[in-house]
Design a protein that fits this description.
Radius of gyration: 12 Å
Strand content: over 45%
Strand order of the largest sheet: 2-3-4-8-7-5
Shape: globular
Structural class: mainly beta
Number of strands: 8
Order of helices and strands: EEEEEEEE
Distance between the termini: 27 Å
Helix content: under 10%
Largest sheet: 6 strands, antiparallel, barrel
Amino acid sequence: MEEQRRFARAQSGALVEMQHPSFGIIEIKARDLSDGGIFALMGNYQPPPIGTTVMVRIKRYTGVINQLPVPMRVVHQQQGGVGLAFVR
């Protein structure tokens, strides 16, 4: 299968604080990050449906990457997680 990504990915141990009215605020781990989005591991949480817009803050052990939550859209689900794309 040919790679169709526009942005290079980097593995990450960042935490993702995801919020949506249907589930409140949850904190999960990112598997990787790119300039286009995040793949977040959902753990025991039910993944939001594809197309859902969630608000996200990305945290590292050294501090928060974005202080204010940014909108991201669920673009795919696989391997126990969700692919989130920045809403531009």
